[in-house]
Amino acid sequence: MHEVIAEVLSYLQAAVRYKWLAIIVAWLVCIAGWLYVSQMPDKFTADARVHVDTRSVLRPLLSGLAIQPDISGQIQLMSKLMFTRPNLEKVARMTDLDLGAKDEDAMEGLVKRLQSSMSITGGQNNLFTISAEDADPKTAKKIVQALLTTFVEQTLGESREDSDSAQRFLEQQIKEYETRLQAAEKNREEFKRLNYGLLPGQGGDLYNQLQALAGQLEDAKLVLQEAINRRDEMQRQLDDEEPTFSDLGAGETLSPIDSRIQSLQARMDDLLLRYTKEHPEVVAIKKTISELEKQKIEQAANAEPGNEAIPAGGELNPVFQQKKIALGEADANVASLNARVKSYEEKIEKMKKQMDDRLKIETALQDLNRDYGAIKHNHEALLARRETARLSENIEQNTDSVKFRVVDPPQVPSKPSAPNRILLSTGVLAGAILAGAGLAILISILRPTFNSTQKLRDVTGLPILGTVSMHWIPEIKMRKWREFLQFCSALAVLLVVFAGIVVLEMKGINLTSI
Length: 514
What we know:
Elements: H1 2-15, H2 19-38, E1 44-53, H3 58-61, H4 71-81, H5 85-94, H6 104-117, E2 118-122, E3 127-134, H7 137-194, H8 206-240, H9 256-272, H10 280-302, H11 318-398, E4 403-408, H12 421-446, H13 453-460, H14 474-506
Antiparallel strand pairs: 1-3, 1-4, 2-3
């Protein structure tokens, strides 16, 4: 930090040699700047404050029945959209400023001038300030009045225009959804007509029916397996039993096939007492009897003399005969159970196929119902919105939802608001002093000198053996003192002139009027 301060001081010491050049530059800049500031035209600013009251007694009463627009947000938006070209041209016509615009370029310049001179500020608590700036105070007031009128008209008109646009859009959408709803209803009706009997709720619950059939099939398979095991056990016992006792006499006996046929016939007679001829067990027993008769005929054709199943002589074994009859009944029971299992399997397969078809139909119907439900829901919502929009439009047309209250009307300004010549003159003085000092420092940098032995040693890198001091004679000291006083006087006169300009501006006296 010490080195920096020493460096700055060295530059200032070097710049002192060009102090007269600096004061001359400062004077020239001040004179030119003050003359320019004095010739700047006056601008007058007119403003008006308006309060937008968005409170209404109907708003809480109609809550939920009518649309409650965001009036505050709409007003904020309109305050930013006021400076569009159509609105600016309207303001120009209302203030007769367009009479001076002879061509398109002149109108373009007028629009740009209005856009840069007008502003709408505020918005807190719906309190807006409308201001305009112009060289003529009366014109400034006219611009503010025209802008205030346009602001009110645009805000009210925009709300009604939005309501009309919403009504037209809702009507268009309702017509479109009515057409789509009719088409969806027709598609559902045609689909139900083509798939009658397979729709959900028609024909019972296939899942429960299929589950019940599957359970019955498993039970039937278990009973069939038990019947097969019982029949095989009977066959084994019958194979171990002798059909007759020893030859105690002659007599006729039945063959095994005849015994089975008689047993099956007895079983079928018993079933016919309870069921019809179309019952699966009856059909199976008939088929078994037919096969046994064919087998009997084949055995009779192939039988040799003396090769009977039961010899003519001998006594029949009653146990054998009973087991033989029981075996026939077991065969008939197995055949009946086989027919029942097959019937269950056929029903399950048929129901599975029907279920596949029904699932496809159910999925397609769900798609149709989903589309129909969405269209119907949107159609009903649009109808409700249309009624809400109509109610809201009636409210806007028959009541004042927004009230504009002018707090401060526009007035003709008595004093110019710009330019601030005192501030500008002060800036000119400061800029002139900085310009003079900067020029002196720049020249000292371009024409450097050594003000200390340390700087000379740092620059040259050579050792300094000693220094020779300047001893000023009285005549030279007096002359330098006079030069210093002259410099201070020139600077003081500059400040006095600045003070005089400030005093004149405070009294409203311009340099150009002197």
